[in-house]
Structures are given as C-alpha cells and as structure tokens.
Amino acid sequence: MVKKIKFIAVHEWAWKLGEKPYPSKNSIPKWWKKMTPFILDEDNPEGKNFLIRNMRNNLSPKKCMPMLDAITGGYTIPLWSDIQISNISEDEDSYLPNIFWKSTKEVFEGNIDGAHMLQIPEGYSNLVFKFVNLWCIKTPPGYSVRISAPAGYEDLPLRAFDAVVDTDKYDAALPIPMLLKEGFEGVIERGTPMIQVTPFKRENWEAEFDYYPDGVHPNKQEDWLRLTSFGNYIKSQWSKKSYE
After folding, report:
1. Which of 133, 149, 213 is nearest to 181 (CA)?
2. Is residue 11 included in any domain, yes or no?
C-alpha cells in the first residue's frame, strides 16, 4: 500500500510563487551524473570498460546502490528565492556574514537564539541562520520525517542541521537552522536544494549482539561479492524504494 506524504503551503502566496517540494530523484547532483560507471585509469581511460584485476572489479561509486538510495531518497525542499551572502564586517581579517534578498517575504531569520551553544563543524561560520520553510508536512499516523542536508550536495554553502519531526502530530512549517560556510560570499539561486525530507515509520528497537563462527563471514563475502562480476546486491538483496 502506498503511503501519502502531504506538503501544505503556509499561505496562497507560497503556493503560487514558492518553489514546490519534489522527489529527490529529480535533482541528482551533476557530479554524480557525470561520473563514469568504471574507474578511470591507464587501462580504462574513458571509464567505459568493466575489468577484473587482483580479485577486484573496477566499479566506480556510481554503481553503488546504497549511495544512490541516499541521494534519491525522500523529497527535496528547494530555496524559493535568490539570495546573496555578503560580508558586512569592516575589518578585513574578520567575517561577519549577512543574507540579502529582493522578495517581500522573509527568506531567512537572523542568528538563532542559543546558536553559541551548538557545536559548529570546522569550516563553518558560528552564525546560524533559519531558513523560512514555506511548507508544512503531514504524514500518516505512526510516521515521522528526518530533515537533513540534501545527500550529494556537500559543496553547497548552506547546510541544514539534522532533525527528526513527528509530522503525523506536528504539521506546522518548521524554520530550518542552517550553517554557512566560513568566508563564502556570492549569490545562491532560487531552486537550489536546501532540505531533504525522508519519511520513516516509528518503531521500537532493541540491540542484540552476536558473532559469526570462523569461516562463515568469508563465505558470505564470497557469495555476495566474488562469484558474480557485479550487481549481486541489486539483483538479490536490494529493495526498490519509491518516492513520487
């Protein structure tokens, strides 16, 4: 049975003028699309030929279904207005960024309360801005969503904090805290992927621990990885995921 996730615009202006969310499979990053299916080297200068050398094949990451599942999973909420990041500090040795836009609607809120208490990754400004998300999210009973930075877009200057929201109970629009890369200045265009929304069913879990007897795991690896050239995972273990 197909489950429904509903995106509800916060007002008519957002519905008519804002960028609508879409399945993440519709915005696969350009670098992934350009990647050759097989590793480039002197024996394979164009990356088009499959080779087996020293008990290993030459598949590139493009053949890794778990990575592609992460990139194409869930839904993407894009930036709904062009913005410009500028350094407003008069001190040439310091960086005090601000965000500007032309829209009559607020696109970002200023540095959030308590931002100084967060652990800021290296390479990012210690100011945390809130992206004004125009979409409420509604999921069926028992389902939540994970909000994260779009997988495969690690080079973007803005990066969302990870969060989990029980959107079957809370369906108001969430402002999304965002980190900004230290020193970045420039324009970020409308339509840039900002948030990845991945629905999941809430369930209770309990960890168990065990080990494979000697020799069992190597046999599993042989079966999984060695006896076929490639594609064993997608043929026999992978399950199709669908987001429309």
Report:
1. 149
2. yes
